[in-house]
Amino acid sequence: MEVSRLTQRLDLSARQQAAVKTILESEHQEYGHLVRNPSLTAVDRFNRLRALRESTVSQIKGVLDKEQQSKYDQLRHPPQSDSPTQSKGEGKDQ
Fold first, then answer.
1. Going residue by residue through the chain (94 aa), what tens digit of pLDDT does each one get?
2. For 1, which DSSP code?
3. Which strand (E) or helix (H) includes residue 56?
């Protein structure tokens, strides 16, 4: 998620915006290193990328207040429909 979207959705303060921007820039840089590292196996790369994402989320949540953390969780995991086919109009009695 980009800083401007988070700022709008979470009503971030200037201090929070700066912190989130730094966190996301760091994640982006580390992501680049991981995907270009030929010595990593696919499994190692996957695990390190997942750990990087978890670390980034934790750091971002660390600069948010409780209400913002709740909204951030909702942005990351929006409610899903019961069935992917139902959202496309399939599988319904018509």
1. 689 999 999 999 999 999 999 999 999 999 999 999 999 999 999 999 999 999 999 999 999 999 999 999 999 988 876 555 555 555 444 4
2. -
3. helix 42-62
| Helical axes 3-10 vs 66-76, angle rounded to 10° | 120
Output the six-digit token pair for 82. Answer: 């019961």
pTM score: 0.79
CA–CA separation, 73 and 38 (whole Å):
33
**Size of the chain, expressed as the number of residues it contains:** 94
Give the list of residues 6+ apart from residue 9 with CB closer than 8 angstroms, or none. Answer: 71, 75
Burial of 90 (0-12, 13-18, 19+ CB in 10 A): exposed
